[in-house]
Amino acid sequence: MELRHLHYFIAVAEELHFGNAAKRLHMSQPPLSQQVRQLEEELGVSLFSRTSRSVALTPEGAAFLEDARDILQRTELAVKRVQAVANGEEGLLRVGFMGYALMTGYPQAIREFRQRYPKVRLELWEFSTAHQLRMIAADELDVGLISCVRGVPMKLDSLLFRKEPFMLCIPEGHPLAELEAVPLARLAGVPLILFPRKAHPMLYDALIASFRNAGVVAEVVQSVARIETGKALVAAGLGCSIHPASVSAAMRPGVVYRPLIGDMPSPELRVVWKKDNLSAALSLFLEEVRLYRDEV
After folding, report:
1. Beta carbons within 8 Å of 14's beta carbon, 6+ residues apart
2. Are 159 and 182 found together in one domain?
3. What are the residues whose beta carbons fall under 8 Å from the beta carbon of 69, sequence distance 6 or more?
């Protein structure tokens, strides 16, 4: 059975006249009659009762008409849906990001994409750089926003979203808070609260290397995965922390931010995805992201 057989059958069932149905289908009557007869033989039932003067649906034909219409309707919907997916207007897009990305234009890009393409189902995941890279490699994530300083793995494409300096987060009343900017050498002996290396290994290693090049041994007393936790510990006087500059936009009582002076890495926020990811929805998402990235 082919879809054309259903079209032929429905036309005859609605016209109850083979001649009129043939005109409607832009074909001659004998081939139409033959195709309907083939359909009946395949089904093993008579769909029409025929006389020399009339055509009527049999009870089996009436039941089959309802299902035939449903099949064609579902087929049309399936065609429209697969075309929408091919155009990126429907489907699933799995989007990763780091916590402090919420303080950039990334959420606005996601919001605009959702409004523009409401039939694309977005799954949003907050993970560290290392976790996002593992998920993208395993095809568990379509696109992520990571922090890095020396590029991205070769199997990934990337788009620079934002580049910014590090800032020092200091407890209020700390001697370093009296400075307008803090030289890296002044952090010798200062307790530091940093993000875990396993979360952002490239960034962590570059930061520690900058301390070493300045002749300073980084005195890391605590590792915290969440920036807000680090700020709370700084406010409690447990030490100072180092964050990308965008984090300072969300102020917290008890802490102040100062620029760092010295040969420091500049963290890059990069949107990353697999080179062989040909998803149309991803392409549309990247178009939206480009509108909200910093001028680079």
Report:
1. 21
2. no
3. 10
Q: Which of 209, 193, 213 is nearest to 201 (CA)?
A: 209
| Residue 266 in domain | no
Judge if 175 and 226 occupy the same domain.
yes
pLDDT > 60? residue 182: yes
pLDDT digits (tens, 9 = 90+) for 145-157: 998 877 787 889 9
First to last CA, the chain: 59
Lookup: tokens for 131: 């976790």
- β-partners of residue 271 are 145, 159
Q: How far apart are CA 189 and CA 233, in angstroms?
A: 17
Query: Has residue 243 been placed in a domain?
Result: yes
Domain that holds residue 157: 91-163+271-290
> What is the pTM assigned to this prediction?
0.66
Retrieve residue 70's tokens.
């449903």
Residue 131, CA distances (Å) to 43, 144, 145, 152, 194 in order? 55, 10, 11, 14, 18
Are 190 and 218 in a shared domain?
Answer: yes
Amino acid at 24: R
From the list 206, 187, 214, the residue with the least C-alpha distance to 267 is 206
CA 258, 263, 268, 273 torsion: positive or negative?
Answer: negative
Other beta carbons within 10 Å of 170: 22
Q: Return the closest-CA partner of residue 75 out of 121, 7, 139.
A: 7
Helix spans in 123-242 (H): 129-137, 201-213, 227-235
How far is Cα of residue 289 from the mean position of the Cα atoms in its chain? 11
Digit-coded pLDDT (tens) for 254-287: 999 999 998 887 888 899 999 988 788 999 999 9
Q: Helix or strand or coil: residue 255?
A: strand
